[in-house]
Amino acid sequence: MKLQEIIKEENLVYKRTPLMTDNVLSYCPGCGHGTAHRIVMEVIEEMGVQADTIGIAPVGCSVLAYDFMNIDMVQAAHGRAPAVATGIKRTWPDKFVFTYQGDGDLAAIGTAETIHACNRGENITIIFINNGIYGMTGGQMAPTTIEGMKTSTSPYGRDLQLMGNPLKITELVAQLPGTYFVARHSVHNPAAVRKTKRAVQKAFQIQKERKGLAFIEIVSNCNSGWKLPPVKANQWMVENMFPFFPPGDIKVDGELVKKE
Amino acid sequence: MARAIILLIWHNPMHVSVAPIALSYVPTALSQYIKLIKGHNYQTKKNKDMGELKLMKGNEAIAEAAIREGVDAYFGYPITPQSEVLEYLMAEQPEKRTGMVVLQAESELAAINMVYGAAAVGKKVLTTSSSPGISLYQEGISYIAGAELPCVIANVVRGGPGLGTIQPSQADYFQTVKGGGHGDYKLFTLAPSSVQEMADFVSLGFEIAFKYRTPVMILSDGMIGQMMEKVELKEQKPRWTDEEIKKMHDKWATIGKTPDRERNIITSLNLDSAIQEKHNHKLQAKFRKMEAEEVRYELFNTDDAEYLMVAYGSSARIAQKSIALARAKGIKVGLLRPITLFPFPEKPLADLTPQLKGILSVELSAGQMIEDVKLAVQCKVRVEHYGRFGGMIHSPEEVLTAFEQTFIGK
Asked: Could you say which residues of chain B have pLDDT below 70?
């Protein structure tokens, strides 16, 4: 069978969502951002809500998310995305509003905005990419940098005595009455991608039903910042990040998931 | 109506005092001396056209005017001496009157970014704060200016620097007019000198904000915010419907990408400096247009004036009395009251210069606006400053004495 005979509409098994633009991704090869973007855009496409969705881009690697997501988007100041989302959702409650933020943005400079938007139960979706590092600025220590992890501002490894502890902000916001669904997933293999997509679908459905805030953490790699090739970076993530940031549901239907 | 008594009542448990200050500011009686420029109808109308009259604080007037303007949202954080704005709105429950959203934010950082969000979707959005809070707003204001979003911000200024004091001040002139946030931008600034103007500048502010897609600052102070005066309130305007917003602002507002248009993006980021320079040129062109078309000011007793006082806001109210006292002594002194601080009334000031022997910039600060006065008159006449500051308020007599000592030599 010739190639031209295979490339036919009826043989199509997968295609890129039209909600991703044709722009070449600015992310490093192997980075999880591209997959996370695609998941969110696929969910919006499948729900048929492109015309009713407004995304908030953060400051960080995904500051240019609006170049790749084919929806109306607002770029927020560093850490302020949940406040910007609040301003939009409160004045236009029929719209789907989500923020897409990294760990420095959401869990350091934007901690107050994150906690208070979650505590008010703003009916928005927060997509939180946690790669334990400031990627955009060149690999500095983040609030989620784990103990002993080397970054450009913790060159001998994170010293908890000197630099404080990594912050489990996802477990923290799960304690707040305003959050309805809180989960942590990853995008490093097809099974994880499917789980993440189901969580994002659920998050947008919760927003549709006006049940409260849905918060999805995606633990991701940063091969450039971690100075590891993509495959090794993902292995390192599974071996070192997952013990501290375990994947799975944390809060479902407004109830904390009990640990066995 | 002969004389308006203005009472300053401070809502501060540490400092309960009622300070009566008598100021002879009666627009109707003085109208023969006052030339109004730009024709905006911010003065009391004749009886037959009169709207609803109320005795209100400046802070309450701005809140009520916002509801009646059909404002979609207010986001704010408590700070003296402007907390009455948020208190009034919460008590009024405007969500029942017009559907207006009122939300107390967790910080000024959050409040200004909620404003940014609501402005990005084409809504009329207002916030108010006072000096230390406005310092925290600066990041957001810079983003709003850069992203070209319309909104109205009011600063009920108190004495600084730092936590300073809760009493009136005009020491935020530099921060407001010279661009308190980062980058090359200008903040369109309206300076109310009465409770009436606190109310009227809400409408005017939104008119300018949407005309130029720019943030507008109402630069008030603790005196105008706290004092009670008669205010004429406008009829209730309906809020824009979602369909009207789509019709008016679909070209830029992020209200959802429909198949008939490309996606809208609200951002202040351009990694390509050449594009950023072009964007800056666009912003500068907007500011030059404001300078050409939006200058507003008021002249008082200037026809035969040999000396001039330049004062805005509450200081202009005091200077008017000083001028009356000076005139009674035969000294020919007039007043120019800038209503817009950016754009500054440079030309009217320059036009008056040939007839003047001296100008006194009367400000509740150590002398900030004086720099713009000096630039306008280009060293052609002596310009001096007088003012109490750090929360202290000069009396009309103090201003007159300073004027006489500076220019008459007494």
From this structure: 1-49, 410
